[in-house]
Structure formats: C-alpha cells, structure tokens
User: What shape does this take?
Amino acid sequence: MSIRTLALASCCILALAAPALADTTITILHVNDNKTAVKIWDQSAADYNASHKGVKVQFKYLENEAIKAKLPTMLQSQDSRPDAFYSWGGGVLDAQTKAGFLKDIKGEVGDVANKLSPTAVAAFTVDGKLYGLPFDTDAVPIFYNKALFAKAGVKPEDMQSWDGFLAAVKKLKAAGVTPIVVGAGEKWPMHFWYSYLVMRIGGSQALADAKAGKDGGFNNPTFVEAGQRLQELAALQPFQPGYASTSHAQSAAIFGDGKAAMDLMGSWLLGMQGPNASNGKGQPESNIGVMPFPTLPGGKGEIGDTLGGVHAFLVTKTAPAETADFLKFFSSEKYAKEAAEAGAYIPVVNGTAAYIKDPLVKQIAEMLAKTKYHQNFFDQDLGPSVGRVINDVSVDVAASKTTPKAAAAAIQEAEEQQ
Amino acid sequence: MSTARYDENPARAGMGAVGALVILLPPALLLFTLFVIWPIGEASWYSLFNWNGLGPVDRFIGLKNYKWAFESAVFQRAIFNNLLVIVVSLVIQLPLALGVALLVAGRAWGSVAFRMIFFLPYVLADIAAGLIWRFMFDGDYGLVAAITHALEMKPVYLLASDPWAFSAILAVVVWKYFGFHMMLYVAGLQGVDKSLLEAAEIDGANAWQKFRHVTLPMLAPMIRLSIFFAVVGSLQLFDFVAALTRGGPFDTTHTMVSFLYYFGVTRMRVGFGSAVGDVLFVVCVAFAWGYRRWVMRDD
Assistant: This one.
C-alpha cells in the first residue's frame, strides 16, 4: 500500500468520523397538544441547530398519560433517558430530585433565570438548586357565556361572593340554562372547584399547613368545609347531565356549543372550545367573559389569589452541557414574544406578557401579574399518589358518594401512605 | 433385530436426548426466565416496599401494600366486576356463540359471509372498538343520543350511571368476543363425524337429542378450551375500561388490571401496583393450573 492510498484512506476515515464525534443530539420530551406553541418550539430548535454546528436539538411529543407512565422508567435507563423533559413541578419534581435524576443548572443559565417570573423560577427550585427553566404559566378563571348570562339576567359583578354565585346558579337553572360544565369523567376538572374552595376558605397557607401535618393535616376544618361548600353547590344540580362521564374534550365542546354558561378552566379552553364544538367554530371570543372565583364568607383567601399551572423543561443528570445552553436560548424574549402574540400561552419571560393580543388571555395574564398568592394545581403540587386522590374525592364529594369528612380523611390517608 | 441394534448403543440414544436438551432448551429457558420469571420475581419483591419508581427501593413495609389493596373499596369492586365479566362470558357469551355457530357452521348459502361478519369485531383493536362504542353510548352526540332524541325522551347517559356503565362494558365484551368463540365452535363442529349424526337419525333421534347426545359431547373439548380463553381473557380485561369509562363513574367500573394501571402505574405507586399484579398473577395461575389439571386433563 502506497503512502498516498494510506493518506487518502485516513482522510476518508477522518471525514467520516469527525461529524459523528461532534454530533450531539439533545432530546426534549413534551406533552403539548397546542400546534401553535409546538411550531414555535420547533422553530427555536431549528434556529439553534443552524447556529450551533454539530448540535441537534429535537422536541419529541408524548401523550400526557403516556409520559407520566413512562418517564420513571425512562429516567432510570441510560439509553432512553431524555436530556430534558416537560414538567409541572410539585410533588413529581420533588421525587425526581430526591432520586438524583436531575441536574442543577443554576450556574449554567446565569442571569437568564433573573429575566423570568420569580414565582415560576421558584416553582422549579428545590433547596436552592434550579433544575430547569420555566416557559409558561396559567391561571384558572371562570369562563362564562355572555349571551346565556344575559338570558338568565345574571351579572358577573354580583357573583364575586359565594352567596351571589349560588344565587346566580339558581337563576341560570330557572332560565333553563345548564349553569356549569365540568369534565368530571377525567376527575381533575372537578378538583379545580375543590382546590379553589380550599384556597378561598383557608388562604395561602391552607395547603402548605395540611402538607406539613398541622392541625390534623388534611383532616383540618378547611378541607372539610371545602367539601361541604362543594356539596352546597352540587345540591343545586348545576352541572350538565351525565357529567360523571364527560371527558375534558367533551366539556370544551359543550361550552363551545353554548350549552352551558360557565367553565372553571385554564386558558387552554379558548383553544379547545372552537375545534371541539359541533360547528368547528365554537363561541366567538366576544361572547366569552372571564371572572375570578368568588370569595367565601369568613374565608382567609382573597379574590385575587390564583390557581394555575407553571411548566418548565427540566434537565436530566447526564444531559450534555448544550442542553442548558439551548434552554437559555429558548428562554430569550424572541420566542416568548412569538408565543404571546400567537396566543399560544402566557410566557414567563418578564415583560413579554404585554405582547398578548387576545383580550381574554390578556385579562388572565393581568390576574397573574396582580396575584399575591399563586397556587400550583393541587394534584401537581401533591404529586401523583396524593394528587390523584384529591381528584377522586372531589368528584365523589360533589356527587355525594362520600362525606366531606371522609374525603378529607382519604387525602390524609394517602399522604400517610405515600 | 431392531431391539439388538438399540441395545448395541444405549448411550447414544441417551446422549441424543440430552444433546437436544442442551442445544434446544437454553434459548427458550433464557427468554422465559428473562421476560417472565424475572419480572414476576421483581414485582413480588417490589410489592413489599413503598416505592414510587424513582430512587432506591429501601422503604420496606411488609405486606401493607396487599392490605391496602384489599381494604380499598375500589379494588373490591374491581374483583366483583371481574367475576361479573366471567359470569356474563359463561352464561351469555358462550351459549350465544354456540347458537350462532350451529347456524353458520353448515354449508348453507351465506353462512361463510355471516361467519365473517360475526368474526369482524374480533379483528378490531380493543381500544379502537372501545372508542367507537364510547361514541355510540354518548348521551349528547352519539347513537344513544340520536335514539333518545328520535323518541323524544330525556337524554340517557349510560356511561355516567352506576349499574349501567359496567353493563355497557359487558355488552361490548360480548359483542367483541363472541365471534372468536363462534369460530372455535365452527371449527369444532366441522370435526363432528357426520356418520354418527346419521346413525342417530336412523335410530329416531330428534334435533335436540342429536345435539344433546352427539354434537355436544363431540364438541366438549372445544367448549372446555373456549371457557379457558374466556375466563383468562375476562381476568385480563383492560382496554374497554380505559376507552369507555376510565374506571368511572366514581370508580365503579374498574377491573383488576385497570385498577393496577390507574391506582398503581399512573400514581407512581410501583410497590402497590406490584402487589395488585401479584394478586392477579396468583389468581390467573391458580385458575389455569386447576382448570388444566381437573377440567382439561383428557384433552
């Protein structure tokens, strides 16, 4: 073999090996069904890949239930562990940090974290360590159908107190309107009602105190009263017939078809009520209003306190350094602004919520800007085992299949079995 | 002569069998151990711990997971529901399948087409069939809605009320699987010796007597087999529950497997789920072993 062939051969091998060595693939798992949002994300990945040679960032979709079932296994496997994944924070995040699957990226992201909403960042900080960067947040208001309200002669101003709210529900019933739609077949939509009642009765410390086991833990009077209030509402039969089997998508369809007056739901309802409605269009936004959950007599919670989610991408322990770098890039104002303008979600990058054009989403963003106490969804906060029990008992209490006391006791029992 | 040759080389025959064992057994044994024995052992081990699937398995709680499971009203209902599926399979589904099989087993005009039609549901994926039926049962937009609307009745929400929701699941189970059992019986009926039937006829037996004393005994091995499939399938029922009700309303339509999934897997209670899985495993093995030992021993 001559020197020339040898040189040529080694050049070829080098040429083949070089890109293989430098190629870093970063996989980010997510559950987002919102096409507008995913398009912006994919674009951000494409932009990053174009400006960073040898790095390939890709967003991968997994269905909501599937990711919850599969992720624990995936995290334990060196081969299928994603580099970053979608997180709701709360109890699952705690379990994942305790098991040591996540990476503290506080040092790597530097001051980018300071440009994000502090409450959102705090939701993903455990013991001073930051495990990911949040990108969106949400609050749950009561969405209402203006035409149906007018038909029954009820006004949102009169519904800021619980008594006013119940009176309005009665009026709606009398006018032949289904007052409230709830997708109780999936349980968690009903837990929004229970959660807000707990927040309005017990104030900002109610959940934290119960978790800490103070005053009987979840057996304390706040949780029992929340159940009683829910039964007080349910006694008026405010929910659509057959609500116990209604799925979340069906509930959005019912609201979109104008067959129910109110829906206690996150802002994603606006994106769902149209496509799920029988005519494919749903209610025009001009016919939808938003209002806060009412306050309760003698309750410690304020009308401005909000319940809602906050989502982040968490970085796993074996992820390459470029993962945090990409998340920094992803958290730039550019993509947050695009998401806001397109109405995809409420971004957490400071100042970008101002770009929201949709008047209803804007109102929700303003609620979030003013809130003094923002509570993560109870079922996320408490983690999967206790969280799902809260969802179970919310439905059972509302349907009087269990007593408020037994419901509170069931949550406490789940907490102790955890 | 042949005995002599055999005696000449007794070791060789033995070596042959052992050799075959050495060569043929390990792959199967390895796969069986790796994918069946090992996971079962692991699940039994996890069932003694309070473990969320993440981190070390170190919170030993003895048999508490089993205690919690049996104390759970939802699990008790799930066991009851499983029994209900078995009863409905044996009392409604199999006789129905046998009746239809008798009608379509012959060479009459159209019988092949009917066999195909009745078998068709079985070919569908369970989850797809479940979703189709979920739509049919829907009180607002589905087939039931259309019927109640046409009759000017109040809307009916089958999947939202307690005894009806599980009845709906049972109806779908019968619809989906009777075609499979029908096919088993059709195959069995084609093996029934025609001369026996003719002999019975000559002896003056009527149609019922021919069925009772000739067809049924000849078909017995197939019936025993189909009962075995029906019971084991009933114990493993999951897809229809997931697609139709997710265990609702109020957790009244769970089966043992859906309970395992919704209360073990999705709640990240791996230890608890393993305990439920172990219970299910013991029930299945006990049935399979007992049934083969005592009922199918002659087949």
